[in-house]
Each structure stands twice: as C-alpha cells, then as structure tokens.
Design brief:
heterodimer, A: 170 residues, mainly alpha, 72% helix, B: 285 residues, alpha+beta, Thrombin, subunit H, six-stranded antiparallel barrel, six-stranded antiparallel β-barrel, 5 helices, 30% strand
C-alpha cells in the first residue's frame, strides 16, 4: 500500500512538472506550426490501473481545462484528454498481460518496449485526432489538419518516450 | 426504475465519461464556435494572469530579436525625420520667395491628422492554429475600442475585436476570418489580403485582375480604404505570383511582421473613423 502511495505521489509530482512545462515552455518546441508537442498527459497515461476511472477522468478533464484557459481553446483539450483516457480504459483490459494486472503499474519498468510504445502511440494519436479536429471545427483544411495530427503525434510520442526513458525508467 | 439505477451503477464510469464529454462539447460550442472572441470577459481576465506570466518568459527569450527590430524602427524613423526636414526647408524656401502666398495660405487645407497610436505589449499570441488571436495589455481605460487596427514596427499585425477594462483581444492577421483591403504599391491595384492557415510567414493577396503585371518583390501595403489602417502600411513582399484563379491573381505574400517574435505593438486609433463610417449608413439602394 505504501508503495502505491509513494508511486502515486511521485507520479503526481511529475504530473505537476509536466503541466508547468506544457504551459510555459512547450511553445518554444513547436516545429513549423505543424508539429505541436503535448506532454502533460503522460502523467495520466501512466496512472496505475487500480486508480478509479472516475478520478482519472476528473483529473484529466480539469488538467485539460487549465491548459484550455491558458490558451483560449476552452473545452478542446478537456474533450481530447477525456477521449484519450476513455480509450486507455478500453484498451488496457484487452491488451495487458496478467503479470501486469497484479502490479497495476503502467510504465517501461513493468511493460515490454513494444507494448508500451503501441499503448502510448494509440493514446497520443487519439488525443491529437480529437484535439485538432475540434480545433479546426471544419473539414475545409482537412489535409492540413491530418498533417498536423500525424506530425504532432510522432513528435509528441518521441518527446514523451524520451521523458519516460530519462525520468521514469529505473 | 430499478433497471435504470442498476444500469447507472453498473456503467457509472461510462456514464460519467459521457457527462464530461458532453460538458466539454458545451464549453467548446459556447466559448469557441469558430469565433473565439465570444469568450466571456471573466474567462478572458482569468486567462490573463496565466498568460502574463508566460509573456515574461517569452520576452526574455526574444530580447535579442526585439532589439534588432527596435534598431531598424529607429533607423527608419531617423530617415523619415531627415526626409521631413528637407521637405520643410524646401517649403520654407518657396514661402520666402513668394510672400503673397503666405496670406493666401488656407489653414483648412492642412491635412487633418487622422490617426494616433497607442503603444501596447503582447501578453499572448498564437500562430499555430487556424484562428489565431493576440492578447494585448491595453484596454478600454487606455482608449482602446473594438475595430481599431494593430500594427507592429514592421507592418500590419491585426485588428481589435474585444476589449475589457485593462486588456484587449485582437484578431491576428493569421486568422482565417481576417480580411484586409490591400494594394500593390508599385501598380496601385487593390486586392484583398487573406490567410489560408498553415505557415505563419505567408499570406495571400487575391482579386487583383490578371491583366495587371505583378512582380515578385513588389511591396503589398494597406489601401487605406478601410479607415482602420492608414494607407501605405506594409503587409508584406510578393513572393509568388503564379497562381491565377478565374482571371484573378492569388499571389503569395511573405508577411513583414515576424509573428513568432512580436512583443511591442501599436494600436491605431482612426480619429475620423466614426465620422467616415456614418456617411455610409442608410445609403439609398
């Protein structure tokens, strides 16, 4: 139990840091107005499966709303993160191995490279798809929106993976 | 009834997920629906506290670029002063030569000063979206009103659409809804400036007839028709004139304002705008 609380505390602290970076520094990492990295959700994607989905959705929704308020995109991030967390809850029971179900931990330490990469990629793709479709709110520039989704997904995946390997892998 | 309760208990997470999603969609539709200037004043004010802090970090990173722009602006002002000085000397010379004209000098013919400028700082600015906005640190207290133009030391930047007591929100030139009457300074032909999303360094000038010879490198400036901006403020340099659509040019412009590094802007107050606009009200069809 202590271990879980410690783990949750360290995840939450990391989540706070990621939020800070997302709010104040990520603007300098945007490439050519097409590839926009999102990192704040990594904390939510790494939350153990034992955490209640309702709590996870609420925290995600509020974090999304904070990012929205800072960027005048009210509701867009909140909707995208809630969608991504919904997908997380859908794919975990289908794909996760029994060994992991016991520990409930979702990180590179307990998962193999292939599973974790696919998991991260699917969630980031879901997030970006919802975010950019809602942001554009039309199909007029759909080509450009698709490019944004693809490039931002690859870019976000790369940065998130880097953060995992650097800070979360023991 | 029991079944409904049972269903809600069993699928409470799914139901909760749908409630949150529904809430998000309501927020999006109410506060965004394309025209994000519909954002309520309270949210706008709240957003300032966060954005102002971010602006401090950004200003620090942009100091170098900002200095270069200020130096350029200084230089161009010096040139203008010199130019005006020489014109003044010339005019004084003429007046001395023909003293009779001095008595005939009609003060009513002196050109009225149509525009004044309110300096302001950028608190928040986006370039990566389809509908970009600039938040400025001047509001109704400083005399800012919706409809005023916003220019940077290098050229046009946007147009004020919403004002609170201390802040204002401007439609950036990088917004699919931003349109501006523009002209080719070499030929004088008037067209319409529009942005089509994507690259923040390029926009388009449209509706110039294909008979006109547009040359790459031509300067595109404001036409002065809108009464929002003075005539002749630079929009950008023509960088591509190949695309012709239904007899009209759709020419690419390299925008002169560096939107990734704007900090100090000016809000343009057109003093005679209301008087000019009132002329066109209730015109006979």
């Amino acid at each position: 139990m202590n271990l879980t609380i410690n783990r949750l505390a360290s995840l939450a602290a990391g989540g706070g840091l990621l939020m800070f970076f997302q709010l104040y520094l990520v603007n300098y990492l945007i490439i050519g107005n097409t590839a926009i990295p999102f990192i704040y959700f990594l904390f939510l994607f790494m939350l153990p499966i034992s955490v209640s989905p309702a709590i996870e959705f609420t925290v995600g929704f509020l974090m999304g709303l904070i990012i929205d308020i800072s960027g005048l995109t009210l509701g867009v991030h909140a909707s995208a993160i809630t969608c991504a967390l919904g997908v997380k809850r859908l794919i975990i029971p289908i794909t996760i191995s029994t060994g992991v179900r016991e520990t409930g931990d979702i990180s590179l330490n307990s998962q193999n490279f292939f599973w974790y990469s696919t998991y991260l990629l699917i969630l980031i793709l879901t997030y970006n798809t919802v975010y950019f479709l809602l942001e554009a709110f039309s199909f007029i520039n759909i080509g450009q929106t698709i490019l944004k989704i693809l490039f931002s997904t690859i870019y976000s995946f790369f940065i998130n993976y880097l953060i995992c390997v650097t800070f979360y892998k023991k | 009834m029991f079944r409904i309760v049972k269903f809600l208990t069993e699928y409470r997470n799914v139901v909760y997920w749908f409630i949150l999603q529904f809430l998000a969609i309501i927020i999006i539709v109410n506060y965004n629906d394309y025209q994000r200037h519909e954002v309520g004043d309270n949210i706008l004010q709240l957003s300032k506290a966060m954005q102002a802090r971010r602006a401090n970090v950004k200003n620090y990173f942009n100091l170098d670029k900002e200095n270069r722009i200020l130096t350029e602006e200084n230089l161009s002002l010096h040139r203008k002063v010199e130019h005006l000085k020489s014109r003044l000397n010339y005019t004084e010379g003429i007046l001395r030569l023909d003293s009779n004209r001095i008595t005939a000098f009609d003060t009513n013919k002196i050109k009225k000063q149509y525009y004044s400028y309110i300096p302001c700082r950028v608190i928040n600015n986006t370039t990566e979206r389809n509908y970009n906005y600039i938040t400025l640190d001047k509001g109704s207290v400083d005399g800012v009103k919706p409809g005023m133009g916003v220019i940077s030391p290098r050229g046009i930047a946007g147009k004020v659409i919403r004002v609170t007591k201390d802040y204002s929100l401007a439609l950036s030139m990088l917004n699919l809804n931003f349109k501006l009457s523009a002209k080719d300074s070499r030929t004088g032909n008037v067209g319409m400036y529009e942005w089509e999303g994507g690259n923040s360094r390029f926009g388009y000038i449209k509706y110039i007839p294909q008979e006109v010879e547009l040359r790459i490198g031509d300067t595109i400036v404001t036409s002065g028709y809108s009464s929002v901006f003075p005539e002749g403020i630079i929009i950008g340099i023509l960088s591509d004139n190949k695309v012709i659509k239904a007899g009209f040019y759709k020419a690419k412009i390299a925008l002169s304002t560096p939107f990734d590094a704007i900090n100090d802007l000016y809000i343009v107050e057109a003093k005679q705008r209301e008087a000019i606009d009132s002329l066109t009200i209730n015109l006979p069809e």
